[in-house]
Amino acid sequence: MALRRDIFDEENEELEERVVDITRVAKVIKGGRRFAFRTVVVVGDGRGNVGVGVGKARAVPDSIRKGTERARKNMRRIPLVGTTIPHTVIGKRGGAVVMLKPASPGTGVIAGGAVRAVVEAAGIRDILTKSLGSSNILNVAYATLEALSQLKDPHQLAAMRGKKVEDVMPFWLRERK
């Protein structure tokens, strides 16, 4: 636990917070309905650390604050290769399926909604994405985070497969012979 505090020290880094969704939810009680707000927040440092959090409260600012706190606690380290990801991955959460594919420099972020928010907060500048299945924003955000957490560092992947690092890198980053 001490290691996580060192990696994600809140005083040392400037984190980008992005509110992805605000939804009004209702709890039915004896006297009628009690309304609250559910907020989905994405937090990232733009250098490979990203987290998604959900906050619920009777007021919008309180739900945003709670979502931000949970996102900071749930931050994960994502391996990057330049401005993109090392390999293609698919993440699933509920009925949402998200595919992330590396892209050559200059492509930009080809994504929409929650996928774009999570990917940009992580610091990825070139990526191709496709969202399949459910369009529920919360599940799409979590599916994207799940896909990003499946990524493996190229050096670890090369060692595991017994190959050179250049052989497992995206083709545009390989040295030309």
Work out the number of β strands: 8
> How would you classify the quaternary structure?
single chain
Name the strands of the widest sheet in spatial order.
1-2-3-4
Q: Calculate the mean pLDDT score and round it.
A: 88
Q: In one word, what is the shape?
A: elongated
* SSE series: HEEEHEEEEHEHHH
Which secondary-structure class do the elements indicate? Answer: alpha+beta
Provide a concise account of the structure shown.
The chain has 177 residues and is an alpha+beta fold. The protein has helices at residues 2-7, 60-73, 113-122, 137-149, 154-161, 165-168; strands at residues 16-29, 32-44, 49-57, 76-77, 89-93, 96-102, 109-110, 127-133. It is built from six helices and eight strands.
Topology:
Elements: H1 2-7, E1 16-29, E2 32-44, E3 49-57, H2 60-73, E4 76-77, E5 89-93, E6 96-102, E7 109-110, H3 113-122, E8 127-133, H4 137-149, H5 154-161, H6 165-168
Parallel strand pairs: 7-8
Antiparallel strand pairs: 1-2, 2-3, 3-4, 5-6, 6-8
Helix pairs in contact: 3-4
Can you give a write-up of this model?
- There is one protein chain.
- Strand 2 and strand 3 (49-57) form a beta hairpin.
- 31% of the residues lie in helices and 33% in strands.
- The protein is built from 6 helices and 8 strands; from the N terminus they run αβββαββββαβααα.
- The radius of gyration is 18 Å and the shape is elongated.
- It has 177 residues and is α+β, with helices and mostly antiparallel strands.
- The chain has helices at residues 2-7, 60-73, 113-122, 137-149, 154-161, 165-168, and strands at 16-29, 32-44, 49-57, 76-77, 89-93, 96-102, 109-110, 127-133.
- The model is unreliable at 1-7 (pLDDT under 50).
- Strands 1-2-3-4 form a 4-stranded antiparallel sheet.
